Amino acid sequence: MRHVGSAHSDAPPAILPEIAREAIRADRLGQPLVLPPLEAPWHDARAVFVTLREFSGELRGCIGRTEPSFVTLAEEIADCAVSAASRDPRFERVSVGEVDRLRIEVSVLSPPEPVASRAELDPERYGVVVTLGLRRGVLLPHIEGIDSVAAQLHIAAEKAGLRDDEPYTIERFEVRKVASEPS
Predict the structure, then answer these.
(1) Hey, which bits of 65-126 come out as E strands?
(2) Does residue 65 lie within any of the structural domains?
């Protein structure tokens, strides 16, 4: 079987959003999914978020993890895509008729690293993870309308059910994003 890679090994393969689309389609139709093998270094497990958008750009679903749960990146993408299409509590399930009309973004995350101060953050470059006990909030970088560290941390803390003044820990991560237009 041919391995799918990218022209530059540091850029994620352009096929990643199509893996997500086919995973959603297979799930909706109750069909088996055959995942393509990806070339190194993209074959190995990595944390991902899959974001689904309507043609207009409106959010339709987003699910991901800061640590991988599967052996391969393709498996991780497929699982997060199906979850984004069916388990994001903010939205109704994506129907089979919507699959081809979705804009799909796959964000491949670097491993989170602790930060000593908020000065090490930049909402355009880094996503954040805030944690206190079992409560955890994650926010991807480069989100429209979030242009300050304070706003980024506030939203991440809110997602975790935390107040801004609670003593949560902060980690940052970088993202390499690949997006596809509707097919």
Answers:
(1) 103-109, 113-114
(2) yes
Sheet holding 135-139, edge to edge: 113-114, 169-173, 127-132, 135-139
> Exposed, middle or buried, 130 (CB in 10 Å: 0-12/13-18/19+)?
buried
**Splitting the chain (183 residues) into consecutive groups of 10 residues, what average pLDDT does each group show?**
45 95 97 94 94 94 95 97 96 96 96 95 97 96 94 96 96 96 76
Cα–Cα distance measured from residue 101 to residue 1, given in angstroms and rounded to the nearest whole number: 29
> Are the C-beta atoms of residues 130 and 137 closer than 8 Å to each other?
yes
Bond into 141 cis (ω within 30): no
Whole-angstrom Cα distance, residue 57 to residue 106? 15
104 shares its domain with 164: no
Res 3: pLDDT: 40
Residue 22: strand pairing partners? none
In the chain, where do the E strands start and end? 48-53, 59-64, 103-109, 113-114, 127-132, 135-139, 169-173, 175-180
Residues 86 and 23 in one domain: yes
